[in-house]
Design goal:
The chain has one domain: lambda repressor-like DNA-binding domains (434 Repressor (Amino-terminal Domain)). Helices cover 60% and strands 0% of the residues.
């Protein structure tokens, strides 16, 4: 991961967690729906862990949470 994108990935993970909780889902439920394990999703959402995700995974998350994918990449307030 390029250092210049660390903040983008951090914000994306926080937004994934925000929308997941807004939909009333646990990390386990979302992880199951996107065919990932809970520790993967936990590391994506953790603000202190540098974790990348593929575009496919981001699109899967967006679909499950019913949120346009660009919302996770847009650097604004949730």
């Amino acid at each position: 991961m390029k250092t210049e994108y660390l903040e983008t990935y951090r914000i994306m993970g926080l937004k994934i967690g925000y929308y997941r909780r807004l939909r009333g889902m646990t990390q386990e439920q979302l992880a199951e729906k996107i065919d990932k394990n809970t520790s993967f999703l936990s590391s994506v959402e953790a603000p202190n862990v540098d974790r990348t995700i593929s575009l496919d995974t981001l699109l899967d998350i967006a679909k499950v949470l019913d949120v346009p994918a660009y919302r996770f990449l847009k650097n604004d307030d949730v």
